[in-house]
Amino acid sequence: MKHPRSVGFVEAQKAHFDEPLPLKAGRVLPQYDLVYETYGTLNAARSNAVLVCHALSGSHHVAGVYRDDPHNVGWWDNLVGPGKPLDTEKFFVIGVNNLGGCFGSTGPVSINPVTGKPWGADFPFVTVEDWVNAQARLADRLGIERFAAVIGGSLGGMQALSWSLQYPERVRHVLAIATAPKLSAQNIAFNEVARQAILSDPDFHGGNYYEHGVVPKQGLRLARMIGHITYLSDDAMAEKFGRALRHGIMRYSYDIEFEIESYLRYQGDKFARFFDANTYLLTTRALDYYDPAADYGGDLAAAFARAEAAFLVVAFTTDWRFSPARSREIVSALVHSGKDVCYAEIDSKAGHDSFLLEHPRYHAVLRAYFNRIEV
Amino acid sequence: MATSDRETGHRAPTLRPDLLALTEWIAPSERVLDLGCGDGVLLRHLIDTKGVVGYGIENDPARIVACIERGINVIQSDLDEGLADLQDGHFDHVIMSQALQAMRNTQGILREMLRVGHEAIVSFPNFAFWKHRKSILEGHMPVSESLPHQWFNTPNVRFFTVADFTTLCGLLDIEVREWRGFDDQGRPVQEDLNFLAALAIARIGRAAS
Q1: Terminal Cα-to-Cα distance of chain B (whole angstroms)
Q2: A352 catalytic, yes or no?
Q3: pTM
Q4: Once rounded to an integer, what is the mean pLDDT over residues A176-198?
């Protein structure tokens, strides 16, 4: 086996679409841009394309670095590259920023051509299904009729699952990692608290904060802090921070006393500097709304009946945001509808975040699965 | 059946005689579940020779990777926790090959196998094989082809015989429909399985009430 390497310097590209996109919630996006990156080379048969779908805070920047920003490493760089489990010497890999995003694809920060002002709160609700439709148009543009695989973790996993239902003939393999067939009430509850943090920030201005030259930083920061609690396991938090004190002694104040507080504030502040609050709201709603079994009276196996792909489902033992039990619901539905499916449950301490980490067993499973895909 | 890259899985090496024997009981295109499927050799064989729609359950990480490499549908699960995710009667055959002796919840898993499958096939080492009896008479726990471990490192937790298994089936309203047996050289045994078979295979179903 060759020594795994980075894909090196990468450049984002932009595709403009003039054909209006009808959205699930009823509105139509008249035109839009999608930014994306590609790694590796599309083969002559166009049979080696793999789409990587991002989660809540991800982007099209999946692997490699930018020439003018060499510290900005792609969010799944440990997976994608020459000699890595998703080997770019075999596959042509595509990362795309979803509609409603804040990394260059059309979203709330974009200018609404009708008003000449940022869309802001008026940006239409987008769903997992809408994202997949937009991704399919990008695939058309790139000349990809059928993906060798679509892969994603968490919300990205929902998009991968949705591909097999919306475009059954266009995807051969689906890799759905640390995901769920729909959110639980507890999951929606966490999302709602995060949204309320943003919506109640005085700088939110009903979503049109761009005009006021402010951003609802406090709300976004709180939303991210809540998120981070749910992405880590109790054990991981205990191990990483325990009850360690910032100053060695208790100071009896509401400033940072415990290291965990420092970590959460740091993560919250960092996130609030670059992420758009409207995108956060839209994206958490897309998570809430996703429920492919809803049209089948809640029968997930019936929903999967039309899928033609083979599936790999992976979950992590300490992930309580998208627990293994949720992945097993997907697996059992696939078994009962007679689909090809493999399921691995990885012993990991890192909670939901595990799907982004380079865990040897996890990567061995992904490597084995990608190896068996013929291109 | 869904399209897949199943065909890319490499062919199995020579199959154990008990696995070859149970292949006879599987009809083409059946839905088969293999509990404790190991590296997927049996399922690969059944897919290649019978075109079954097969799934394996396994809990060992290295074996799961081996199954994935073979193009086998493998599902990670702890069998001692049952088959709760699976619907009644979904499979034509549920196979458990040389794993029952390593499970604690013997009765539970037998019931579960016949809940999710129309029939089940169970193979196990026969503790009453004559060489095992001889070993006990000589004062030692048996160590053989079919019971390869020492008493202090065996993964087995249940030690039983063809006769014991028959009795348990009676208690659980399970009907043994057919037996196969093999001696310690892998040769088929035609009679007195409880004495002459080192390895036994039973095809079982729910007894008609």
Answers
A1: 35
A2: yes
A3: 0.94
A4: 97
Report which of B145, B105, B111, B117 is spatially closest to residue B34, judged by C-alpha positions.
B117
Cα–Cα distances in Å, from B88 out to B73, B109, B118? 20, 14, 9
Distance of CA B199 to the CA centre of its chain: 11
> How confident is the model over B95-106, as pLDDT tens digits?
999 999 999 999
A184 as an active site residue: the answer is: no
Q: Decide if A154 is catalytic.
A: yes
Pairing of strands B199-206, B117-125: antiparallel
Computed over every residue of chain A, the mean pLDDT equals 97
Largest Cα separation within chain A, whole Å, is 67
The full 3-state SS of A29-52, as one line of letters, equals ECCEEEEEEEECCCCCCCCCEEEE
The model's pLDDT over B158-168, given as tens digits with 9 standing for 90+, comes to 999 999 999 99
Q: Which of A275, A94, A126, A301 is nearest to B86 (CA)?
A: A301
Report the chain A residue with the minimal C-alpha distance to residue B29.
A338
Measured in whole angstroms, the distance separating CA A52 from the mean position of its chain's CA atoms is 9
Return the SS3 of A200. Answer: coil
Chain B nearest C-alpha distance from A327 (Å): 11
What are the beta bridge partners of residue B188? B182
The closest of A164, A162, A131, A134 to A147, measured between CA atoms, is A164
Q: What is the DSSP-derived secondary structure letter of residue A4?
A: P
* Contacts within 8 Å (CB) and 24+ apart, A213-220: A215/A272, A215/A276, A215/A277, A216/A277, A217/A272, A217/A273, A218/A272, A219/A277, A220/A268, A220/A271, A220/A272, A220/A275, A220/A277, A220/A280
Token pair listed for A133: 């439709």
Label residue B8 by pLDDT band (50, 70, 90).
very low
Residues 1-20 of B with CB under 8 A from A: 1-6, 8-9
Q: Which of these, A254, A275, A268, lies nearest to A223 by C-alpha position?
A: A268
ipTM of the complex: 0.93
Locate B66 and state its tokens.
Answer: 């081996």
